[in-house]
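Deviations from the work plan: none for this task. Representative record:
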Amino acid sequence: MNANTWQIILTIIQYFFLIFSISAITSYILLGIISAIETRSYMKKNSFVNYKEILSSPFSPSISIIAPAYNESLNIVENVRSLLSSHYVNYDVIIVNDGSKDDSLEKLIKAYDLIQIDIPINEQIKTKPLRGGVYKSTNPAFDKLIVVDKENGGKADALNMGLNISKNKYVASIDVDCLLLEDALQKLIKPFLEITDQKVIAAGGVIRIANSCTIKDGKLLEINFPNKWLEQGQILEYLRAFLLGRMAWSRLNGLLVISGAFGLFDKKIAIEVGGYDTNTVGEDMEIIVRMRRHMQEINQKYKVAYIPDPLCWTEAPDNYKTFISQRNRWTRGTIETLKKHKKIGFNKKYFSLGLLSYPYWFIFERMAPIVEVAGLIYFGILIFFDYVRWDYSLSFILLAYSFSVLFSIVAIISEELTYNQYKKKKIGIKLIIISFLEPIVNHPFILYAAIKGNIEYYFYKKIEWGTMTRKGMGNT
Amino acid sequence: MNEYNFILQYFNQFPLIIKVVWITSVILMTNVFILIIYLRYLRNKLRVKSSLESKCQMYFESSLITYLYSGNEEEDFSIEQKKIIKELKGVTSEAFKRKVLIATLLKLRNEITGEIADSIDKLYIELGLLQYPLSKLRHKKWDVIANAIRELTLFQVKGIQSVVMKNINHPKKEVRKEMQLYLVQLFTFKGLEFLNLLQTPLSEWDQIQLLEILQKSDDQDITDIKPWLKSTNESVVSFALKLARLYNQYEVKDEIIALLNHKNELIRVNAIESLNHLNVLEAKVVLKSNFIETSLDEQIAFVKMLENTYESSDKFFLLDYRNHENQEIKLIIMEIMKNLNFEEYYLYDTELFEDITNKKTTA
Amino acid sequence: MNEAKKIVLAEDNSVLSLLLKFRLEKEGYKLLIAKDGKEALELIEQFDPELILTDIMMPFVSGLEVISHVRNKLISQTPIIVFSSAGQEEIVLKAFDLGATDFMSKPFSPHELVIRVKRLLQ
């Protein structure tokens, strides 16, 4: 009888893992198909779009780019230059120096002939106070630049200061070390102006990894493929996430996150919901969820738009230490956001937001690492008691592995068919090789970081709040 | 053979679920290898295509320039031009090269006007390129039609509007939009007549495209926009308000003032902005008397209007609202008072001024 | 004054560049072509041209910065004609603030450009 009960428990556990895996795989396949449909239709619609008109029209809406900077002295002058060289006309750039301890501000003052000015600030969102004040350039060529020097309050607080300062209709948040492509703004503003039956509250696009690429004077000259597996694996991961995942969610109008590296928002709504949350490390995801929730609650039709065009290039971590701490933060950001908004989860009042997006994030993003580790522990126990049928296990491992390789290859093909950015010879082979390696060389670290994030969230969460670590790619 | 049998036997004794998993994995792996082969083929194809494209483009660019500068006054086409036409005609049957050629023509066509632009349009016809978009106007794929119309618009091909117009009720909005652009490009304000019948919304993006075409055209003789200001289609009203601003249509001020009671808030705000732009001072009386009942956005738009159109009679209004609960309105009023150097300004507001400038926060 | 007068042309549209080069060289000028503002500045510093033609919207260093660099850093009074797109009045005003000599709104007639160039280089 004892043996029998054991058998039943084991079967239940096995079926749990089996069902989890099958539903994960099914959801990936569905997302892949949806994204293919959506990408095709986007490409068709935009093959003959003329973006020039939006640049010269006096009716093109005003945009503020808000770039928080913390101890970015090394590259700040170049980075600002790249932000100033966008082709869009009706925009300004607000650099928020978030209490940097280095000479960022002095460098900016010198490079752009800045002087302090007195402007009234409409403090719609509470932030840390100004330190040096607000600066503008005396040179009309840099007329678009506004530099704000404030006391340290973290990235979210800096973004909120930018929201207060901006006088424009739309705001773009960007990591200051991101290389913004010159046509990014005109492409990203299009969904806001084009969709008439829904209110577009935010929009995002594709972020690419700039490691090893040749960048000169704030301009991307040559796209290269890095040598380290870690960097290559991340490129693959970004391709999968942006080209397959987010594109599909945009079709379903269920996007829960716009990358903090670059996104465009309707300022009025962003302020209405209270701006960025300074109490989370995942402020980029949290604000989208809160804005969506707000729109649902006031019963207005809305959309979070997404376009598959590459808009900006960013440095990804090139060593395991930074990589792990980045993923650790992402995990905590996700947990915090989902927890804060747990009311919408599985709540039919929020329609697809509550019944589709939230559950998906909760089960396959939030819980997946935990299930995976539980699976590994279970497997370890089986090995220990010599219960393992290796020929059975092997089949499951192979299934998971071949699926993940297949998914990567599909992502690469969809990149080739759409933007074909990795044109150089031999990159093709490297991409294929890393598709096979990535599940082995990168995934374990992602899993480790996610578990670490969970542990830190539950056991050490107070500690990190004291010292504000800026969320960024931190590779400078 | 024996080994094969052994594997088969071994496989057969698996439970069903394990069998399924094994088979699926093998299928997935096979797919992986097929896709890898496809990927290699694809990358190669794209590479060849792009190098061919840049070669063609360079060749077309230099032929085009030579063509443009080898014409003379006496003949339609000089001998040298005829030679280039013959050469280029040779490639137009290949879809790919034709596409590059058209892109090259457009790259220059879009940036210039005058004789040279006309000369490019003439070359386009002479090369027999017109037959391709014309034959596509009845295509079953909507994106092919839209592309064809776009091409006709860009080369300003006249005399075919009746064929293009057949798409007036095309189910895809992208096709209808291209058609609208075509009509406006060729007939400017007369082309805008479709607005009288338009039922569907005209997005901001479309409006901007149309306005830019109008602005670039030589014909600046605007037609009567009053009917559009009264349209039941809200996007048409908003478009007409933009026209009023762009072409300084002071004469439609009464229609715009009437829009201050429109049921759509955005239109009311746009109307105030247009009145501001047109400097319709008489509208201020109405706006002041309704101020409290209007929405926040309207109030902001109106205070901004006062910033541009200040008269001494506005002083008391400003003083009344200098403590408005909305910070933005308060700031604009401050700004007006400061810029105009109200002698009483400091009398009233030293405290308030300190309160809202950043001086406080640094202290 | 036997030597041909030098003109730096900064324009990212290669065909337009080629067209203007052809047209202006026919009038006896020597054209130096830059495809962005950065190259333009290098050519200007190296050759000290008699005239500068620059598009406003260019990759990396914009036409405005070219003007600002020429007037403020090089302290040179070389005439500058800027090309802008229709509707960019604000930028054109800024260009004049910085010291632009003349402007042409795209799309423009190359013929008219030649007339203006000739007038400035008389």
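The longest helix of chain B spans residues 16-69.
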